[in-house]
Amino acid sequence: MKIFVLVAILFGFFWEAAMVWLDARWQRTHALPECVRDVYDETEYKRWRQYDTEKTHLMLVANAVQTIILIVLFVTNAFAGWSKILPENEYANALLLLASWTFFSGLISMPFSYINDMKIEEKYGFNRSTKKTFFGDWVKNLILSLILMCGLTAVAIACYHAMGNAFFLVVYGVLVAVMLVVSTFSLAFMKIFNKFEPLEEGELRSRLTSMFEENGYKLKNIYVMNASKRTTKANAFCAGLGKFKEIALYDNLVNEFSEDEILAVFAHELTHFKHSDTRHQTLLSLLRFLPVALLILLLAAVPACMTQLGFDKLNFGMVILTVFEAVATPVMLLSGIPINAFSRFCERRADSYPVTLGLGEALVSALKKLARKNFSDLNPDPLHVKLEYSHPPIAERIQLIRGK
């Protein structure tokens, strides 16, 4: 079991390193597609290359540090040693073990996040966060992680004693429920970190409302999110159940994009609703958690798994930690390939609706502005796209919009 854990940890690191290598090799030998050469001028493209290099190097170093620490801790059975120091009560031991690792892991990653957000993003003019905002967000994320992971562990222990090995069905149900809640109420969770104000009355609000109502959807509200508090980047999204939808626009988008461009972006989003793309992708994503639940069952049901990790009895804190920090990584990465392929199909289909409304060039303009503002990679390696991208590259999308 320990060998499998170590291989899984290394798999995750080398996978990310391989994606970096693919893009670097492709960009050395392939020029930017013609249709996106106006996104960056020569000077700005050099800045993007520098930005991408700095972000990539930081990500690789962060992954390397995390990988080395995890390998050392698993090889030396350090988790088992720490467990022996903690209270013997089953719940207390498991929850404290998992909570201490979650906190320690957060401390490890925090300096890298700080460098990314407050140094690199600041250097290239994207970051608008203060140190207070950064550390406040870090604390909120840590608290949410502790609640989710410790809650899942407590449920697993209780169900194991009540149901035996059938406990994994409840664990899977909890994972599904958490994902459904997060995806359904994503806007509510985002309000923990951001302020949302209703979009003021005017032409843009009227046109967005009319477009959704003409397609059978009722907008509960249209919000403007204070994204400029943290970044200069732009985005927009829809949320909500059934026929009732909510729209959120970054204030950067409202202030810097034309009405037609914003309308084109939401015509694209509207197509996802019409074809139930979000529902289908959510169902596919839920299936990804079934192998994760089975891995939790394996570690809990086979005593040798715990023995090889240095424990003399079942510890659900260690089970959850091992699954989510190591053995689930290959499963999630590989299962993501067909899901991402379906997502790219949905994105191509969604790009066609704005064209029928006469907003094709507005969508092209919006995509280019988004790429420019978000410093997007305009020329990724095709294999990397197939393995990890949920959206087609911008050049491919523009060519399809223009029918080329």
Task: Give a verbal description of the structure.
Helix content is 73%, strand content 5%. The protein is globular and about 65 Å long. The protein has 404 residues and is mainly alpha-helical. Helix 10 crosses helix 14 (360-374). The protein has helices spanning 2-29, 42-75, 78-85, 90-123, 131-163, 167-184, 186-190, 203-214, 251-256, 259-274, 277-301, 303-308, 316-356, 360-374, 382-388, 394-401, and strands at residues 196-198, 218-225, 236-239, 244-250. The chain has one domain. It has 16 helices and four strands. A four-stranded mixed β-sheet has the order 1-2-4-3.
Summarize the structure.
This protein has helices at 2-29, 42-75, 78-85, 90-123, 131-163, 167-184, 186-190, 203-214, 251-256, 259-274, 277-301, 303-308, 316-356, 360-374, 382-388, 394-401, and strands at residues 196-198, 218-225, 236-239, 244-250.
What is the fold's blueprint, element by element?
Elements (H helix, E strand, L loop, with lengths): L1 H28 L12 H34 L2 H8 L4 H34 L7 H33 L3 H18 L1 H5 L5 E3 L4 H12 L3 E8 L10 E4 L4 E7 H6 L2 H16 L2 H25 L1 H6 L7 H41 L3 H15 L7 H7 L5 H8 L3
Parallel strand pairs: 2-4
Antiparallel strand pairs: 1-2, 3-4
Beta percentage is 5-15%
Overall body shape: globular
Our Rg estimate from Cα atoms comes to: 23 Å
**Mean pLDDT across all amino acids:** 88
Low-confidence stretches: none
Number of domains: 1
Measured between the Cα atoms of the first and last residue, the distance is: 52 Å
> What is the strand tally?
4
Largest sheet: 4 strands, mixed
Helical residue percent? over 70%
Helical run tally:
16
Structural class, judged by helices and strands? mainly alpha
SSE pattern, N- to C-terminal:
HHHHHHHEHEEEHHHHHHHH
Please state how the strands of the largest beta sheet are arranged side by side.
1-2-4-3
